[in-house]
Batch of 3 targets.
Target 1
Amino acid sequence: MKTRIITGIWAGAIFLGLLYLGGLPFLTFMAALTVIGYTELIKMRQLSFKSLPVLLFGAGALLPFVGLYEQAENHSLSLGLSPLAWGMLIVLISLFWTVFSKNVFTFDDVAFLLLTAVYVGVGFASFTYIRLLENGLIVSLLIILLIWFTDSGAYFVGKSLGKTKLWPAISPNKTVEGAVGGIVLALMLGMLFEWIHPTVGFGKVLLLALIVAVVGQLGDLVQSAYKRHYGVKDSGALLPGHGGILDRFDSMIIVFSVLIVLGIFG
């Protein structure tokens, strides 16, 4: 527990400090987390980091940051091709690699790498995009608080009142009562936050809180599902007492991605 608390303090201080700074420092930090998250999933799959497709898709995971860099620095970054064209080229080269490797590297491996690159790349880039908005700091803080309060509500309500298993095949400890408790606490926090610091309006904050609470818990279940599939307890060991980067950002990268897809802040 002591290790967990110490890690939480220094990691939280770094994260919140860079979130406050925004701009290029935060963008660089999110790009670094993208690479780390990508490597965590590669290790779960037990793919070689010397494999050409693994390296290419690792670079591909950073393609969503190209436009964000241009936005943050206010100048164009020439890559010769568009990020979409580069992404398609990476996919094609990797498909060709299944032939050159005589199917040691398989079609399934290509699909895994593509999904991994999109999952972490778009997830962390979506977080960065919202932070770079004019009111991005306060909006990002609101979303993060909603996620944290959802998790806390789900944990404490589940511990005290939980009886009905939510999804035992994926996460045996989560309960329906806990999930509902997390949603209720998020709605309450959203209203309180908007009352103290008017940000998006009461109607929108309730919608935001509901989306964050539901999608955040789904994001956590997504990670539980693939960790169970690969037989690992934690996504990594970078954060002593907490696990890996994906263990800490599993809900966030899904939530921020969904908010962009729905056009809530896009």
Target 2
Amino acid sequence: MMGRHHARVLGSLEGVDLVAVADPSGDKHGVAGGREVLSSVEELIEKGVDYCMVAVPTAFHEEVGTALADAGVHAIIEKPLAENLETAERLVKAFKDKGLIGGVGHIERYNPALQQARSRIESGDLGEVFQVVTRRQGPFPGRIADVGVVMDLGTHDIDLTAWVTQQEYTSVSAHTAHRSGRDHEDLVAVVGRLDKGTVTNHLVNWLSPLKERTTVITGERGTFIADTLSADLTFYANGEIATTWDEISRFRGVSEGDVIRYAIAKPEPLRVEHEQFRNAVLGLEGADIVTLEQGLATVKVARACIESAASGTSVTL
């Protein structure tokens, strides 16, 4: 399902030749464009590829990733890096031992709204970041069968929060629910703390007819709201002009200031992700990828959320 989108981008990416695709079930979505359709990663390796995009069910990440590492092939692996901590650690080691470039497909980092928010936070536009709140909800995706909502969707919010604030998680407390009759959780609410004191809150589910992808970042100078569906970023500034009209002040915040929706370029996040990985493989300075080590850190936090929900306690990282 994701592989077809990766193939579309790679097939038209400057500086990259899409040599072949491999899928044991064939090219059901017709993305090969006349290129060879192979049945295994081993056949793909035999083509002498420089790097490979791994878009397979999470349970097969280690098998495919290790085969590529053993063959000396750079790889970008769809998120999450692995279904558990041990597997993620082995993948990190496999690529590190071979001196290979490995990346994780946390695509939200490349969303224009979050890229802009990260840049403005680095420039001090918000001052100290107090809180990051994310809401990610929508209907159940039939393609997901091997992990729950924490590993599939929650890892997006864990990664983007750590990245946009440039902080690491120090603790999480989570509650989950099973409402759709599946083995894995389909709803989670997480409260976390980052290493510079920022408090986080993530609400994620597969149960809503409303599709929402919202990140709210509050700091000492105002609030950013990033809508990653529309790639819009809006800034609500703290005001410096007191509201002296009592009737109005009852309805409006006493520190309400300017509201700005930024006009920003909106390239496709998936294309930017692949451009950056291509640049990393080419050794170009400034290539911005999600490293395997960063992917491992996200898996650690996600597994801590699942542990917290199971034990009913807060988990320290």
Target 3
Amino acid sequence: MDNFLKKGERIEDLGLNNLKIIQNPEFFCFGMDAVLLSWFVSRRIKGSPHIIDLGSGTGIIPLLLYGKTRAASITGLEIQEPLVEMARRSMALNDLSEQIQIIQGDIKAPGDKILPNMYDVVVSNPPYMRAKDGLKNNCETKTISRHEILCSIEDILVFSKRMLKDRGRLFLVHRPERLGDIISLMRLYKIEVKQLQFVYPSIKKEANLVLIEGRKSGKPGLKTDAPLIVYQQDGAYTQEIYDIYGMKKPE
């Protein structure tokens, strides 16, 4: 396994079908939002869909969806070359280079490998912050991952409208304070919001994430799932979070 690693990198076991991923703390490592989004998607798709993950980073969502679904194909689209190279090594580490394709490209001009009306499912854990908002990180990779510098919500919706099959599904995780803008833009691009689930750090705090499902050319009709609570009052994970991570709750 050491042959797969470069300076500063480590291998993390995902606790799912023996899958592993290469991470580097100097870049943008995956967090709970990617895990929750993959869980949210896997509960709602059936059959063997063709899936594409936008802004795939080091490939965490393609790996988790491979372990949780029976997808016919999974593609990760990522613009940053260092992350693409690392993601491809993670796929090789898991012997999944044929099953999961990592493409370097810009969602605004994805290239001829990605064809219109090709995908059943588009997934994205996009940058949460507007380009002009918040403190920028000194590391360009982290700044791109956190701020809408190279990829905005509207870019994702333009891509999804063009690349999704009719009635195909778009799944996002984002901040609740951006939800009004997201719903308005989704309807503008003919993607109807069908399901929401809010994620709360604890029962006494405001939601800090929202999981979103939309459908291309879908009919109006929005449902909300029961809230997902991350921590109990004593600071331990709730049982649902242990279940999502596939971990056993300590006795």
